[in-house]
Design a protein that fits this description.
Length: 291
């Protein structure tokens, strides 16, 4: 079994990005500037946004964190989006999801300038991704693909089962895995809460992408010998033995599944760090595109 070490891979990609930033600086060009907007006080979202901002600093980007209380109105958030669209200093920005229930997420995402949409969530970028045109790819799917590439995981002709059909992970990673490219050329099945006999389906998979958000859902008996398993789950589970009062659990029962795998991602230290570096890479390309 080979561990797909997202933390180590992300670290080396950050060094690559940092040296590109240095080169930009030396030639008197603008340093990339990423902004993140966080509405409300969801603990997990605060942690994710904090990691994104910290990573910006590590590679020499400028970052701006905009926080607003959970009673922020849709109109107020649209105004922030409009300001970020117009601000020439900002190369790219993200609106951390989920948003409070009273805000229409689609309306907000639609208002983002697609050229600054480094999360790749605007319908223009989603459409371009479907057509295999240059665009910002959503960070988690792009991070998974980059991890498979860097470990030279064989994908051509493989049966990939993606569990979960979210717009952020399941759906886009399915699109990327079926592309005529490397990594890609998979035969993809998207499984979800209404899929019948998920266990047999998973057992037939050469590659399993677990992105359903249910702690330790994928067990050893669901996995074929030699399969590749990518765990996208990051659920907070109550754990009194931890200082924080919780631990982070993946969607995969690692101890059971790892024994059977050719490759597997750990949680934490797998997909999470790769998501962040994908966002940084998108921001770097936003600067190059604007130039
Ligand atoms: N919430 C969970 N994942 C993401 C992500 O990749 N981007 C944003 N903006 N919000 C998220």
């Amino acid at each position: 079994m080979i561990l797909l070490d997202g933390a180590a891979t992300a670290k080396s990609i950050k060094l690559e990005i940092a040296s590109e930033v240095e080169a930009l600086k030396k030639s008197g060009q603008k340093v990339p500037h990423l902004a993140a907007v966080l509405v409300g006080d969801d603990g997990a979202s605060m942690t994710y946004v904090g990691s994104k901002v910290k990573s910006c600093e590590e590679v020499g980007f400028v970052s701006t964190l905009i926080t607003r209380p959970s009673n922020t109105t849709e109109e107020e958030l649209l105004q922030i989006v409009d300001q970020l669209n117009r601000d020439p200093e900002i190369d790219g920005y993200i609106i951390q999801l989920p948003l409070p229930k009273h805000i229409n997420e689609h309306k907000i995402l639609l208002a983002i300038d697609p050229e600054k949409d480094v999360d790749g969530f605007h319908p223009v970028n989603v459409g371009k991704m479907m057509l295999n045109l240059p665009c910002f790819l959503p960070a988690t799917p792009a991070g998974i693909i980059e991890l498979l590439r860097r470990y030279q995981v064989p994908t051509e002709g493989k049966h990939a089962v993606v569990i979960g059909r979210s717009h952020i992970v399941g759906l886009p990673v399915s699109v990327l895995l079926q592309r005529n490219a490397y990594p890609g050329n998979c035969t993809v099945t998207i499984a979800h809460s209404r899929t019948s006999d998920l266990k047999s389906l998973c057992k037939s998979a050469d590659i399993v992408i677990a992105a359903l958000g249910k702690p330790e859902f994928v067990t050893g008996e669901m996995i074929k010998e030699g399969a590749v398993v990518v765990d996208v789950g990051i659920t907070r589970v109550v754990d009194a033995s931890k200082k924080s009062g919780f631990r982070i659990a993946g969607d995969v029962n690692f101890a059971e599944v790892a024994e059977k795998c050719s490759f597997i991602t750990p949680v934490p230290g797998g997909v999470g760090p790769m998501t962040i570096v994908s966002l940084l890479m998108n921001t770097l390309s936003a600067v190059k595109n604007h130039r």
